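One chain given next:
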Amino acid sequence: MPAFTIAGSTVSFTETGSGDAAVLLHSSAGTRGQWRSLTELLNGRRRVLAPDLRGYGESGARSGEPNLADEAAIVGALAARAGGRVDLVGHSYGGAVALRFALEQPELIRSLTLIEPVAFHLLQEDWAGRDWLLAEVQAVAAAVVRDRNGGGISRFVDYWNGSGTWASLPEDKRSALVSCAATVAENFVATMAEAIPLETYRRIQAPVLLIRGADSPAPARRIVALLGSTFPNARIRTIAGAGHMLPLTHRDLVNGEILMHIARAAETVELRAA
């Protein structure tokens, strides 16, 4: 399996297909395996690069303070490997990383798909009366940072997947989640530390698809709304009956939306070139 070293960490990734590139970024407590079905659908249409983000799967732990800039550098390395612009897809923490990269290097984005990106810093500047949204997320983050031996990660799992999810998991899955609790805590630190004003994201001119679940936690849905009203070229798709883990629970619908978005972006590029 190919790998590279960046910012003191070894990053493993898979690479399949040929042609224009798509980069897929998974959520916290996940791996590149999250995108197996989407990768299969993109086969023959895109060269797909899917990394394990730092501390997950076969990638090494980060060195230094958690921050999204170092994570975004992973996308930069993959885009350089691909030799041009990419269709960038990110879910949850991967969405926050994708958002940071798109802001840093918008010229390298052909299309951007963000599935409930956890850009929690945007809640800090939301209007009065919505302070509870940020407080809700901060409480979950504090639990994970404070207790990395089970209590915090169980709250994290139930928050994003629904009450009772942790109790329903087999012991081997619980153990696997506890083993990555420290990395999940670092992800929260990185997202909370961002200090980019909402208006700054108007710089991203590429076509953006924002996907959210109708039953997802309110902070995640609100972040999608804020970004949707800011990007110059954005479309929001809300999936009925879905929660935060919709790329897995509603994969056919989500994958279909992503494929359509990527195809539309490619058509736009071709029309401009003509």
Remarks:
- The chain has eleven helices and eight strands.
- The mean pLDDT is 94.
- Residues 251-273 form the longest helix (23 residues).
- The chain has one domain: 3-126+197-273.
